[in-house]
Design brief:
- By secondary structure, the chain is of the alpha+beta class.
- It has two domains: 28 residues; 92 residues.
- It is 48% helix and 20% strand.
- A hairpin with a 4-residue loop joins strand 4 and strand 5.
- It is elongated.
């Protein structure tokens, strides 16, 4: 009787592990732990810069370049972070902010972008 109980516990643990592993692969998380940490930080930075752009546009009636945000002290930390360089492209009534890896150790890491829709994408 104890033997069947032990087998039941092992089966439940195996199924739980399988479900856990599957959820990780479906979440799209890839790369080394350091890459995951850095790209998460870059995503947060992109969201912060995009929010600053929205606030600047509400106050000034136009979106700002990276230089304008820096000049107004609205871009703490500058245009580089964690081996990524940020660029802002203004087009009509919108913007695209791109974070490109410039550190040679991160050459194969993703380039991240955010637009005025506040959606971060990888390429």
């Amino acid at each position: 009787m104890r033997f069947l109980g032990l087998i039941g516990v092992l089966i439940v643990l195996g199924v739980g592990y399988f479900v856990y592993e599957r959820s990780l692969t479906e979440s799209g998380i890839e790369g080394s732990p350091q890459e995951q940490i850095d790209t998460t930080a870059i995503r947060q930075r992109l969201l912060a810069i995009a929010q600053t752009e929205r606030q600047y546009q509400a106050s000034n009636g136009k979106y700002a370049t990276l230089e304008e945000l820096s000049r107004e002290n609205l871009l703490p930390g500058g245009a580089e972070q964690r081996g990524y360089t940020f660029e802002i492209e203004i087009a009509g009534n919108g913007f695209t902010i791109t974070a490109t890896p410039t550190d040679e150790d991160k050459a194969d890491w993703p380039t991240l972008e955010i637009t005025d829709s506040m959606q971060v994408t990888e390429r």
